[in-house]
Amino acid sequence: MMGPFQVSREQVLEHSRSMRSFPRIIAEILATIDDPDGSVKTLALCIEHDPIITARVLSAANRASERGRRESGLLDIYAATSLIGMSRVREIALISTLNGFVDVNDQNLRARRLWQHCVSVGVCSQELALNITSAVCTDTALVAGLLHDIGQFWFHSFDAAAYQACWSEARRSAIPIEELERAHFGADHSSVGAWLAQDWELPAEICAAIQGHHVPGCANLSPLVDLVHVAEVLSNALNLSGGDENRVRFLSSASCERLGLVWDASAQALFGRIEARSQQANQFFCGPGAQD
After folding, report:
1. Residue 183 burial by CB count (10 A; 0-12/13-18/19+): exposed, middle or buried?
2. What is the pLDDT of residues 193-235, one digit of tens each?
3. Alpha-carbon span 19 to 160, nearest angstrom
């Protein structure tokens, strides 16, 4: 039985206008992926006017410099990029930007835990992209993982009390949160997230991954859908975000087969990297003082 709300795509987009504007820098950073010649300059121009991103890039570069026993005290974004690499700089910029967009704070524990989960899924998506037979850009995988649950942030903004009630029921029962969302709101967070991503003009493969991450289709057009699905399941299985709502309900064997993933003894090294990187990312971006 449906609840009091019947949200439509139009209502979702209308309400999103009262939320923070989606940062244009995301599209600008994604554009640098396909521009190997001018990407360093373009990326630097994208981020050098944002003090938080710049500080985090310089911090990461100086840590790498100290580990490599080089002279520390890097103050130039170009030198920092040369030291830690384009991919690492993009990762810092993307997570930092979206961290500010979702506006997570210590007073909202549910949103904070959700964002930690999204960071973990983003990192897991990146690592899986390096270990599959299909060609998936690691930066695109990161963005798709970070945004896969963006619809949940919309629900919280739309009606925090009603959405918290959905989560409370989900914890008490064996009913998946997306089923409770459809019962109460008339749409689930996958659909809401896909509508938002389309409105933000994100690449079609990212929109599809957000839409299909819980139930990947048998004939989807992009391996990114399978990738994000597996990344979320793996993130929950490894309890990367430490949430009490982390559950493994369904892992598509077809998705694993399409991606060429085999869960044998060799996967332990992959799990170890994912756990280490997820912990590091959540401490760096979501830990005490991360917003400063």
Report:
1. middle
2. 999 999 999 999 999 999 999 988 765 678 999 999 999 999 9
3. 14
**Residues whose CB is less than 8 angstroms from the CB of residue 28 and which lie 6 or more positions away in sequence, other chains included:** 42, 46
What separation in angstroms does the CA of 67 have from each of 20, 55, 284?
38, 18, 17
CB 54, CB 47: distance < 8 Å: yes
> Residues 170, 183: contact at Cβ < 8 Å?
no
Whole-angstrom Cα Rg for the chain: 19
| Residues composing the chain | 292
Q: How would you label 103-122 residue by residue, b for 16+ Cβ within 10 Å and e otherwise?
A: ebeeeeebbbbbbbbbbbbb
Enter the tokens of residue 159. 């009606």
Q: Are 139 and 30 in contact (CB under 8 A)?
A: yes
Residues 6+ apart with CB under 8 A from 158: 7, 15, 185
> 232-241 in b/e burial notation, b at 16+ Cβ within 10 A?
bbbbbebebb
Highest mean pLDDT among 68-82, 88-102, 182-196: 182-196
Here the tokens at position 98 are 């979206």
Amino acid 201 reads E
Q: Is 249 helix (H, G, I), strand (E, B) or coil?
A: coil
Q: What tens digit of pLDDT does each residue of 97-146 get? A: 888 888 765 556 777 888 899 999 999 999 999 989 888 888 899 999 99
Q: Are 22 and 200 a contacting pair, CB within 8 Å? A: yes
Whether pTM > 0.70 for this model: the answer is: yes
Q: At what angle do helices 109-129 and 86-102 cross, to 10 degrees?
A: 160
Q: Which domains does the chain have, with CATH numbers?
A: 1-10+106-292 (1.10.3210.10), 21-102 (no CATH)
